[in-house]
Write a structure and sequence with these properties.
The chain is an alpha/beta fold. About 30% of the residues lie in helices and about 25% in strands. It has 10 helices and 17 strands. α5 crosses α6 and α8 packs parallel to α9.
């Protein structure tokens, strides 16, 4: 591996593990979850199938994101408004199903303006709640990302090769922007139904692949992003036949997997970025320092244990009285802060 901050952290953590010395580090996800999942629909042709997808998610209490082709959304305004009323995220999939990559900035900006105008005719004042984007055919470039941010978009769901990590990241199109301003990119991390159809998968092969992808997501603490297309969710469609079983599989991970909308994941990633975690091992205790400019809800700090199933205790202070301990596995536990106050928080962890 080329030397980097991540490489140094990996080496330090490995040595600490071999020495049975606990380590504290900022978890990727809130509330002690080990992984996150966005289940979204690219709502294009056969837009009328979107409520069936919503029903499958709702059967287990989940909400998803609908990236809407606005020219199609304008034909089904009642469907769009109903999905939003039911708690799902409405986001953009552009105006028409043609990619953006390589187009002139003026042409791209004209399309972004037009898609926002089209969706406003459907949502009225609530159009401001639509802050996500997914490029048609996953075709976009740095110009697209800069223009999305310029026009108030907060995240976009990208292609699977957008980043080497299976985690959200901030757009590289405008480096140096603070987290509150930067565009959050959510890379697609799972095969989608278009891939399944190109591979000529049977429903059983689709189910097996989805389940394997989900298991990997949870094991690796990653973001799972599954994209489904509305045209493949009609009667006899490949995904309509498999999604019910998949949603039940997702629900089996309920205590470990955060299933959230795209805007919720993006908002969390911004909050998480502002928190700094420092730790020292002193006199058989782990001293942890947290620093954040603003209050953060649900922050999790993972702690590796010195030995299997060790019990940990957080010394109670006025700052840490709200922290709760959530066991993760025999060698890890999460310290979950319902609300981490702005400023500096210090606490001491011991093991027995």
């Amino acid at each position: 591996l080329p030397y980097s901050k991540d490489t140094a952290l990996l080496m330090d953590a490995t040595v600490a593990w071999l020495r049975h010395q606990p380590q504290a580090y900022k978890a990727a996800w809130p509330q002690g979850y080990v992984a996150a999942h966005l289940i979204e629909m690219d709502t294009e042709d056969k837009f009328f199938s979107a409520p069936s997808f919503a029903q499958h998610l709702e059967s287990e209490g989940f909400k998803g994101t609908f990236y809407c082709l606005t020219s199609s959304a304008a034909e089904y305004p009642d469907v769009v408004r109903d999905l939003m009323a039911r708690g799902h995220e409405i986001a953009y999939h552009s105006d028409v199903h043609f990619g953006f990559k390589g187009d002139k900035p003026g042409e791209q900006e004209l399309r972004i303006r037009f898609m926002k105008q089209q969706l406003q005719t459907v949502l009225g004042a609530r159009v401001n709640e639509a802050t996500g984007f997914r490029a048609p055919t996953e075709s976009y470039d740095s110009t697209t990302e800069m223009l999305l941010r310029k026009h108030g978009l907060r995240h976009h769901a990208a292609d699977e090769s957008a980043h080497q990590d299976r985690l959200p990241f901030f757009s590289l199109a405008e480096p140096g922007l603070p987290p509150e301003q930067a565009l959050v990119v959510l890379p697609r991390t799972q095969l989608d139904d278009v891939s399944f159809m190109e591979l000529k998968y049977t429903p059983q092969q689709v189910t097996d692949t989805l389940n394997d992808d989900l298991d990997l997501t949870v094991r690796s603490g990653a973001l799972g992003l599954l994209s489904v297309h509305s045209q493949n969710y009609v009667e006899g469609g490949l995904m309509l036949r498999t999604m019910g079983d998949y949603v039940r599989k997702v629900a089996s991970y309920r205590d470990r997997l955060w299933v959230a909308r795209g805007d919720e994941i993006a908002a969390w990633w911004r909050q998480r970025e502002t928190v700094e975690v420092q730790q020292r091992w002193v006199d058989d205790a782990l001293l942890v320092r947290l620093q954040t400019p603003a209050a953060v809800r649900g922050l999790s700090v993972f702690v590796t244990l010195p030995y299997q199933n060790a019990k940990l205790r957080v010394d109670t202070t006025a700052q840490t009285k709200a922290v709760r301990v959530k066991p993760i596995d025999p060698y890890r536990a999460a310290l979950v802060f319902d609300t981490l106050a702005a400023g500096k928080t210090l606490f001491r962890v011991t093991f027995h």
